[in-house]
Amino acid sequence: MLRVRQRALMRHRINQGLVYLLAIAISLWVLVPIWFIASMALTTPATVRTFPKGVLPFIPFSFDTMQFFLNSQGIIPGLINSIVVAIITLVLSTIIAAPAGYAISRYIFPGRDFYRLSILAVRAFPVVILAIPLAVVFINVGIYDSVYSLALMHTALTLPTTVLVIGSVFASIPYELEEAAQVYGCTPLQAFRAVVLPLVAPGIAASAIFTFVMSWNEVFAASILTVRNRTLPAQVLSTLNQSSEPYQFAGAFFMMIPALIFIFIIRRYLFNMWGQISK
């Protein structure tokens, strides 16, 4: 009996060690490229051009490469446009997706399943199918080449997945909680605000992460729908063939920063959501 327990304990420790090794390998797979890009962006342009390349702290630390990138033509306006478009997309997608997700998860109506599949099917369409017709519409309306038209395009791209994510979050909250609140005198709106909303906030934060990051990284529609008011990815892409290595590394680093900061700020909401899902 003692040997069986020892074998089971040894097997458990081996499995746990393998899980830790896998987690470390995945972490390194993600973090090493980020650290390499950050090292190249936070050193001198001369160091970036050398070979073999090193990483911090084994190379000089400097903001010269970042300054060179920021002084390049179109970078500061592109950075501002990317932030504005991502924020507008985040707000619009959340405002539209929250009531839609609540309706899908709480109410039974004819064609609900078909509606869900239709939402997912729209997301499966290639970006070009939406971008080119919308470009024609925006030209006719007179809002082509603006951050607002691009934000509408990004909202159309992110909205289907945002609706499904928020709908699944609402579905994970038992409806009996709302009914109990109404028994104790709350109106449906008060029950939603006091009981449901605090529980779904982590899920809405997760969908906001997805919306922000997808809008920030999107480049195809931004290249089609903008000419002078390009976002940062579209601006970097348009000059990529003629740009130097310091420009490319600094551009990659700049495009990573907002998404990393955004995830860092709301990470506690994600942890809360994962904790609720695992219960």
Helix-strand blueprint:
Blueprint: H1 2-41, H2 45-49, H3 64-70, H4 75-106, H5 112-124, H6 127-141, H7 147-171, H8 175-183, H9 188-217, H10 220-225, H11 232-238, H12 245-265, H13 267-278
Helix pairs in contact: 1-12, 3-12, 4-7, 4-9, 4-11, 5-7, 6-7, 7-9, 8-9, 9-12, 9-13
If you had to describe this structure to a student in words, what would you say it looks like?
The protein has 279 residues and is mostly helical. Helices cover 80% and strands 0% of the residues. Helix 3 (64-70) packs across helix 12 and helix 9 (188-217) runs antiparallel to helix 12 (245-265). The two termini are 33 Å apart.
The fraction of residues in strands falls at under 5%
Question: Structural class of the helices, strands and pairings?
Answer: mainly alpha
Order of SSEs, N→C? Answer: HHHHHHHHHHHHH
Largest beta sheet, briefly?
Answer: none
